[in-house]
Write a structure and sequence with these properties.
By secondary structure, the protein is mainly α. It is built from five helices and no strands.
């Protein structure tokens, strides 16, 4: 259930990011920087070993990197959807909405797989701390999955 909550939060955040970016371009940190920030938060809350930190950075860097193209595609999709809405092009709206769902599902899968790989690194005591966190795991805002840029509580 924890992974599901994280993935749902990740998906909502990814969609919010995609919808919020219209013509302005924001520079997101490099995947390695994002991963390191996330691991730093997790390390302080879970008392991760150096080996766990190294593995977690690798896991999350790969996930953030994999999510980049999908996020770009989601942004493009949202722009096209706004155009279809203005044109009252219902067939295109349906097609773009379906594509958006597929892309969002891909982001959810990337996040869930990264969370599963990270969770497998934890000791029993660390898992208990992770599971006891009110939002399904440490990290808080900004500590979410690859497309999320943050978890919601």
């Amino acid at each position: 259930m924890t992974i599901f909550k994280l993935s749902a939060s990740f998906l909502a955040a990814a969609l919010a990011i995609a919808m919020g970016q219209t013509t302005t371009t924001t520079t997101t940190p490099d995947p390695a920087v994002q991963a390191q920030r996330r691991v730093n938060r997790l390390a302080s809350e879970l008392n991760l070993t150096d080996a766990q930190k190294t593995s977690a950075v690798s896991i999350y860097t790969a996930a953030y990197t994999s999510a980049q193209t999908i996020q770009t595609n989601l942004q493009t999709n949202r722009t096209a959807l706004r155009t279809a809405i203005k044109a009252n092009d219902t067939a295109t709206i349906t097609q773009l909405a379906t594509t958006s769902g597929t892309l969002s599902g891909q982001l959810t899968a990337i996040d869930a797989k990264a969370e599963a790989a990270f969770y497998a690194l934890l000791t029993t005591d660390q898992k208990a701390l992770y599971d006891a966190a009110p939002h399904g795991g440490p990290g808080g805002p900004g500590g979410g999955g690859p497309g999320a840029r943050g978890r919601r509580q």
